[in-house]
Amino acid sequence: MSVLITGGAGFVGISIAEALLERGSSVVALDVNPYPEHAKAHFEQLPGTLRHVQGDVLDQALLEGTIQAHGVSTIVHTAAITPNLDREIADARSVVSVNCVSTAAVLGAATKLKVARVVHTSTGAVYGRGQWEQDELFEASSERRPESLYEITKVAAEQLVQRHRQLTRLDAPILRLGDVFGAWEYRSGVRDVLSAPFQVTDLARLRRKAWLPRPGLKYWVYSRDVGKAVHLIVTANRLQHDVYHVSSAYRWSIAEWCRLLSERFPGFSHEITDLADRVNVEFRPDHSPLNIERLIEDTGFTPQYDLQTSFDDYMSWIERSSGMASRS
Questions:
Q1: Hey, how many other C-beta atoms are within 10 angstroms of the C-beta on 199?
Q2: pLDDT number for residue 327
Q3: Domain 189-219+250-287+306-320's class?
Q4: Rounded Cα gap, residues 2 and 20, in angstroms
Q5: Could you tell me the fold of the domain covering 2-179+220-246?
């Protein structure tokens, strides 16, 4: 199996590539950025093969040429920009282009070249303010109510996928990812706000105190669980649904993560504060969980990384990947 991952040098793209390579797939990573050397060196030891094509997913000729040259049978579309407020104001055009126009480009190329499946990675953020208005979020019944530019563009991209699927019968499942963190997260330049576990771990390694705006109690989903879930979707013979949540079964807080960090990094501490100018860890308010029963029933997915397991794996990854997990 040859799988093209757009945005393949990004955090989520690398995590998916690792899961596929571990299971012997051929992976082509298309990204405008260089592929991190540490990831490349690690992946050379895995059963699958990795090829990196450096270029813009919006370049239609490059996209189609890559699909043809590598005999791509499946595309995992992860290319996206996650903007902060400054970029939302200053560079909305780039955000819309990457998040929406590239989706149309991938769908068109896949249909033209008869790619068997396109897996579109979306986000639980598409629910917008609805994330705080329901006890639990379901793929089929929870309303998408976007507000930020990121939420708006991700909803629009989903609608592009859904419309194209109606017109062409392209096999194109949508995956709405939860709050992802963990191994392979780094400052790629396209995610303006990194995960809260990344931020506090960075502070701990610098022996700087973390000031949290709230405990941060969520179903944080570890990157290796995301990679596993995407692999199951990529390789499934037949999928029963068009949209799936990818999240965790384990709920814990950033405050709990900080307590584990304080045991590993003497001198590190954290505190919750109401003073906005003191806060140095940024993350979205706690929201309703994404129900993952559909993913479990259709693929057999089982989240493996709870608080302690993910912490241990992440610390081990940092020790081996100091170049990628660089400090502020």
A1: 20
A2: 47
A3: alpha beta
A4: 10
A5: Rossmann fold (3.40.50)
